[in-house]
Amino acid sequence: MIRVENLHKHFGGFHAVDGASLEIATGSITGLVGPNGAGKTTLFNVIAGVLEPTSGQVRMDGDDITGLPPHVLFHKGLLRTFQIAHEFSSMTCRENLMMVPGGQSGETLWNAWFQRGRIAQEEETLLKKADEVLDFLTISHLKNERAGNLSGGQKKLLELGRTMMVDAKIVFLDEVGAGVNRTLLNTIGDAILRLNQERGYTFCMIEHDMDFIGRLCDPVIVMAEGKVLAQGTIDEIKANEAVIEAYLGTGLKNKEMV
Ligand SMILES: Nc1ncnc2c1ncn2[C@@H]1O[C@H](COP(=O)(O)OP(=O)(O)O)[C@@H](O)[C@H]1O
Ligand SMILES: [Mg+2]
Fold it and tell me: Is 255 inside a domain boundary?
C-alpha cells in the first residue's frame, strides 16, 4: 500500500532520515522500532504530510503522494493519530468524535439558513456513528465524559476512535502505548487487531514495548541512524546481530529495545 523510496529528511546538516526505503503491505500491521533518535517519528511525519522530505518518494497504491498535505492524505484514507488538542478537552468523547469528518453541511451560512433538515439528519448520522465507535472501543460508558478527564490510555483509545469516523485505509500510530497501563494497553491492542481483521485497516506503528510489537506486528522494521537496518518477524529481529549491535550502549533491555 505504501512504498517509501530513498527518503531523506535533513534538518540543517543533520540527516534525521538518511535514505530510508521500505514497504507497508496492504492488510499488515507493520511495526517500526529502533533506538531513540533513529528517525522514526520524522519518517512518519514525512509520510503523513506533516513534514516535506528533502528528497525521495512516497507512493500510496502506486500514486506519488510525496509532500501532499495532511488533509489531502486524510481524504485518501491515510491518517496519523494526534493527541487530543487542548481546545477539545472540554468537549465530551462523543462530541470529539462528531467533530472529525470535515465538510459537514452545517459549516456554511447558506446551509445553516436553507438546509436545516439536512443538517439535523447529518447530526443524527454522526451521533449514531460516534456511539458505534465508542461501543467498538468498549468505552461507551465514557460518551458524556469530557476528553480532558480521561486517563492517558483512554485518550489513546479516543484518538484511535477518531480514525474510525472516516474511512481510513492506513493508520500511523506513534507510541500509542506510551505511559498506558497493562489493562488498557491490551484493550488498545485488541482494538487495533479488530480494526485490522474486521475492518481491513492497515497499520504502521512505532512502539517501545517489544511484547506489544510482538503480539501485533508482522513484519517489524528496524531503523537506526535514519536508515532501515533490518526487517523480519519479531523473532528474526531479536536474533539479528546488526539490530542487537544498534541497541547496544543504549542501556535498554531486550523487552524495551526501542
Ligand atoms: N524539527 C527538528 N529539527 C531538528 N532536529 C530534529 C527535528 N525533529 C527531529 N530532529 C532530530 O532528528 C533525530 C530523529 O528524531 P526522531 O525522528 O524524533 O527519532 P525517533 O522517533 O526515532 O526517536 C533526532 O536526533 C532529533 O533530535
Ligand atoms: Mg519518536
Answer: no
